[in-house]
Design a protein that fits this description.
Elements (H helix, E strand, L loop, with lengths): L40 H16 L10 E19 L2 E21 L2 E2 L10 E5 L6 H30 L36 H13 L9 E17 L4 E18 L5 E10 L8 H19 L2 E2 L3 E7 L1 H11 L31 E5 L5 E2 L2 E2 L16 E5 L2 E2 L19 E2 L7 E2 L3 E6 L2 E2 L1 H14 L4 E13 L9 E12 L6 E4 L1 E5 L1 H5 L2 E17 L2 E21 L15 H7 L1
Parallel strand pairs: 8-21, 9-19, 17-24, 18-23
Antiparallel strand pairs: 1-2, 1-5, 2-3, 2-4, 5-6, 6-7, 9-24, 10-13, 10-17, 11-12, 13-14, 15-16, 19-20, 20-21, 20-22, 22-24, 23-24
Helix pairs in contact: 1-2
Length: 583
Amino acid sequence: MKHHKAAAGVTAGACLMALAIHTFSHPTPAAAASKPSADNVLLESMDAELHRAMSSLGTGDAAQPKPYFVSYAVSDADNISIAAQYGAITVSNESRRRMADVQVRLGSPAQDNTHGDHRNSALTTVPLPLTDDRPALARSLWFATNRGYGRALDGFLKVKTEQQVRAKEEDASGDFSIESTQPSGPSAVLPASPPLSVDRAAWEARLRDISGLFKQFPEVFFNSVSLQASTETDYFVSSQGTRVATPSHVARLVVVARTRAADGMDLFRAETFEADEAGHLPDQKTITDKTLAMAKNLVALRTAAVTEPYNGPAILSGRASAVFFHEVLGHRLEGQRQRGDEEGQTFTKLLNKPIVPSFISVSDDPTLSTFQGTSLSGHYSYDDEGQPAHRVDLIKDGVLETFLMSRLPIASFSTSNGHGRAEIGHMPTGRQGNLIVTSSKTVNDAQLRQLLIDEAKKQGKPYGLYFEDISSGFAVTSRRSPQAFSVIPLVVYRVFVDGRPDELVRGVSIVGTPQAALNRIVATNDKQDIFNGICGAESGSIPVSAVAPAMLISEIETQRQAQGNNRPPILPPPSAADEKGAK
């Protein structure tokens, strides 16, 4: 499906697993198989204009070739956003948005206008009328299609010129896969998402109460409590016969707080809660308890010791492990990273070879909507190229078996496996959905902790590290840069070998190179945890999930985060008495 979150400052191969308010949950095709009514003006307008474009665009000669492929992807969404800080509402609004991505391809699947650096020449994005006005919809799609044809023609001419002067490419695969079957019919066209229903007054009261909790913590100089609820229907039609409509809906609440240590280091914590609708989010007591615990931990971090660079054993909690696998492994198994002069191709030549310990297996299964009762952000029924979602077994018993494929072929794989994903306004590429890590070498938490202590003793280290909570990370896959990763933990403890109590520390980031880090996994615990977040890369920012057990790594490298040089606020916050007197 198409997503509306704006992406900024992200480059190809770099991902941010941010705790932003954005994710969608899709039903499976079996959830509802009835075809929408015949008066679905939007879908019918898309169909009619697409067929007109295919029969009218281009003259068929070399100067104006006819397109061999055209598609329309429309995202039709309603959204409610509410935010509060320090007990007062700062945002409360409803919005409606309808956007169209028009894709035009000239040439042939073997080589078209998207070749090489010209991938975006196929795409044109425009807003559509919010009402089901058939003539207005047709005009908007007509305008976007004609503009898209011009862009595609310009790109195709550049591709043909460049091919005459370029050396032979490493991967001579085509530019677009030929799929044997296209999803269409009742199973692919589901009823539109139901109207958005949120009791705004009740939620404004709840958010005021939650954000007001931070008044107890004068050291916390910023807080935000945000609710976003969305309902969306995504439509996709193509000249190859694909006709898909899928509904989605989600509610997500995010609590964020920031403080600053005396030495200038900025610190923050975040808690997220999500469900398929606002009424299914946790009750107020659950959110209050977690918010208070988060605030107390954030205050404690202000006076925690600053860690020194470290190279030794560490345990990553399940959430931290999930982000680790997403960043270190998942991005390097996306199909488009296996071709192109700019890609590092870390695992391209390692098909059917071991790349992680033999007790680790990894799959990506976007067909899962929940895991052990928790919603998964990376769930979808059809990808953004209209292909059915599939479970993909990437690694079995440590051995690499395949990659995450969109309709961009690579040397080893010529067809999609349902992982072509994109934010609105971006060309789909192979992306992660729900990355699931399993292990056949498990121990309980106490045993895993003892293994950490034993490993630290063996290496002559006074302590090992335990990474409890995680914020984000990024992976660099460009050939021109070091093939490295960085993961930013929020809560880290030193676990001493002499039995002293664990010590909270701050200022830590995990760094390293993928093959070295992945092959130093020693053991995992016996339960899996979930991280839901937003991942930004060349096809935009999309919701993803990662599921993994906690794991012990025999050798992990950390470095200090940026220190910062701004002092904490000089003037203390207003007291309750000040606020009362000001009224």
